Amino acid sequence: MLTRLACYCLLFLPLLAFVPAGDRPAYRLFTAQGQVADYDQMLAQLAQADVVLFGEQHNDPMAHWLELQVAKDLAKAKGPGQLVLGMEMFERDVQPLVAQYAAGTLPDSAFERQSRPWPNYATDYRPLLQFAREEKIAIVGTNAPRRYAQQVARGSLAALDKLPAAEKAYFTPLPLKVDYDLPGYKKMTAMFGGDASAHGGGGARNIIQAQALKDATMATYIRRSLGPGQTLLHLNGSYHSDNHDGIVAYLRADSKKPLRIQTLSVVTQSQLQQVDKENVALADYLIVVPDDMTKTY
């Protein structure tokens, strides 16, 4: 009897060694409807998609670490040449520099001087770009240059009409249709005030048009950068893809070329046991992070 008991103890000892004394996870992964999700199963589904939109909180370290992990695992799952990295963080007019950096022909110092990287580039995005460069993964800056979004915010989309063709090439083709009833845009209306769908809707209308210019431009260059059999992993603020609108709405506007799209969204909560009601269905997968997680800025 003692011998048999000793054998059982030896059998389960390795398992007991991995039982945590307390559960303090840095994040938890859920499906859209709030069911606990498995990372490997999620990855298998992402690998089957044409486009994966990773909606981040720009200053969240868990988001940036997970973006790197997803990129590494998707590159392995897809095989050489089958993953493309798209980034809101780089604007279309610096794409030649992004391409040179990805090809290894532009040094880090020159790239950082000339490409207008975000202030948190060194800690949050540089490791991802370096990985892509090492693995020969194409990198695409997808965002409309900020100066054009600012012009729209001040004077509506009409402010872009008189620009020369060379400048119009940096954003989505005009005219741009804006659906003010998209959930994200309706939230912006409430945030900034005014009836954005009404004629002369004031500041809210122009701000939403500027947001739509960014969303549509990112969608345009995601489509243009995607080759047969490839998956394009796109990093953007979660507001650009939450509720499957924003970028997603513009990607789906071309019904002649439907895309398989998967979305992720990083949300913060005071507890990680379940998804808070307001976060349910924001994306296909929800990455829940403690609201007291340290920030990168």
Automatic annotation (TrEMBL):
UniProt cross-references to InterPro entries, sorted A to Z: Cofac_haem-bd_dom
Residues making up the signal peptide according to the UniProt record: 1-17
Pfam families per the UniProt record, alphabetical: Cofac_haem_bdg
Coiled-coil region(s): none
Domain of life: Bacteria
Entry keyword set: Signal
Residue ranges annotated for the Haem-binding uptake Tiki superfamily ChaN domain, each copy included: 42-251
SUPFAM superfamilies in alphabetical order: EreA/ChaN-like (SSF159501)
Identification of the protein by name: Iron-regulated protein
